[in-house]
Specification:
By secondary structure, this protein is mainly beta. It is about 0% helix and about 45% strand. Strands 1, 19, 20, 21 and 22 form a five-stranded mixed beta sheet that branches. Strands 2-31-30-29 form a four-stranded antiparallel beta sheet, with no helix packed on it. The radius of gyration is 18 Å and the shape is globular. The two termini are about 15 Å apart.
């Protein structure tokens, strides 16, 4: 449904945050033996935002897709400044920037999530390197906002990561000397409610990290406890919180919920005691199953649609990434955008705290199983793509 950036801060198995974070993928245990999808009919449409740079680690990132096949994302220009964009289903691309966004290198605006009403949420970094949230309406009007507790220090502030069909927004708030994270939900009227999962740590880079929100307002994510162990959670629309774990693990390992669909099914990642990363699916009743694409060196689900189809990325032996689609019956089909490089992990979105894979990464899937994502070419330039069945 909504896009999930690959973010190395909150996710065990991708390695820590360089001062702030925004979204994306994590870990899991137990390899499941699943059938592999054979090459099936699929079409790739690649695109670049106007103004996108063409140098290494510049370019276009497709981050989120809605039911109508509209795509939101971000691009980095030739001066390493970030801007948001929306690509309509007819291919028209409109770029935008928040009024308060900084204009220096690794500053700017990123569209992170889009809903059926063409509302887009995301973040911008100002000239002082402080994070702020925004909501862009279908008519292009941008409303900037900060959670009441948002810090004003470097790489502190408010980081929206998801928006649902009714305009509810969820994300993180970083503040205080320890730079711990707290969750928030922003209502349609602009009211912001912060929350913490019971047991979340209050130390450096600990706390509560919401990542996905569904149409009912249920939020999933991860929290890091005082022992640096990650745990999954789901917060219902009424505020009640249920915690879950794939399996007991140690420090810097554990469970992260990433995306939640209308039925309450969650996909995410888990890092096991061998520090291997796997994907998981958790039903609304709490049943958890695990999975990995064949040959995966690390599995990172990013998005689940209403039917329960999942997309994401997985590492291959060379260190690069390929995309995958997991059907409801467990069949996994892997894919690579023509022209994509084998790649590896390198910074793209607003510095080392926001990362996308080199190679191919499926980042968001809609109800029709259309997938939006990003790939890098042989010159390490990023491009957006749309994959249709």
């Amino acid at each position: 449904m909504h896009g999930r950036k690959l973010n190395r801060s909150r996710i065990p198995g991708i390695r820590g945050r360089a001062g702030g974070a925004a979204l994306a993928l994590a870990i899991m245990l137990a390899l499941a033996v699943l059938p592999t999808g054979s090459a099936q009919a699929q079409t790739f449409t690649t695109f670049d935002s106007p103004g996108a740079g063409t140098g290494p680690f510049q370019g276009t990132a497709g981050l989120a897709i809605n039911t109508a096949e509209d795509i939101a994302g971000a691009y980095v220009d030739a001066n390493s400044v970030y801007h948001g964009f929306v690509r309509l289903a007819n291919g028209t691309i409109t770029t935008f920037s928040a009024l308060g966004a900084g204009k220096g290198a690794l500053q700017g605006t990123a569209g992170v999530s889009i809903n059926t009403g063409l509302q887009i949420t995301g973040l911008y970094i100002d000239a002082s390197n402080v994070y702020h949230g925004f909501m862009r309406a279908a008519n292009g009007t941008i409303t900037e906002f900060d959670a009441p507790g948002g810090g004003k220090g470097v790489f502190q502030g408010t980081i929206p990561v998801g928006i649902n069909a009714t305009g509810l927004i969820t994300g993180d708030v970083f503040y205080g000397a320890s730079d711990a994270s707290h969750g928030f939900v922003r209502l349609g009227n602009g009211t912001i409610k912060e929350f913490d999962v019971p047991g979340a740590g209050t130390g450096t880079h600990q706390g509560t990290f919401p990542i996905g929100i569904n149409s009912a307002g249920a939020v999933t994510g991860t929290y890091k406890d005082k022992n640096a162990v990650y745990h999954g959670f789901v917060r219902a629309a009424n505020g009640s919180i249920t915690k879950f774990n794939v399996k007991t693990v140690g420090a810097h390992q554990g469970t992260s919920g990433i995306s939640i669909n209308t039925a309450g099914t969650i996909t995410g990642t888990f890092k096991d005691t061998s520090n291997a990363t796997h994907g998981f699916v958790r039903t609304a009743s709490g049943t958890i199953s695990t999975f990995d694409p064949p040959g995966s060196m690390g599995t990172f689900p990013a998005s689940i649609n209403t039917a329960g189809v999942i997309t994401g990325a997985y590492t291959i032996a060379s260190g690069g990434f390929q995309g995958f689609e997991r059907a409801v019956n467990g069949t996994i089909t892997t894919f690579v955008v023509p022209g994509a490089s084998p790649g590896g992990w390198l910074a793209f979105l607003m510095g080392p705290q926001h990362n996308l894979p080199l190679g191919t990464g499926g980042l968001s899937i809609n109800t029709a199983a259309d997938i939006a994502g990003t790939y890098s070419d042989a010159s390490n330039v990023y491009h957006g793509f749309l994959r249709t069945p």
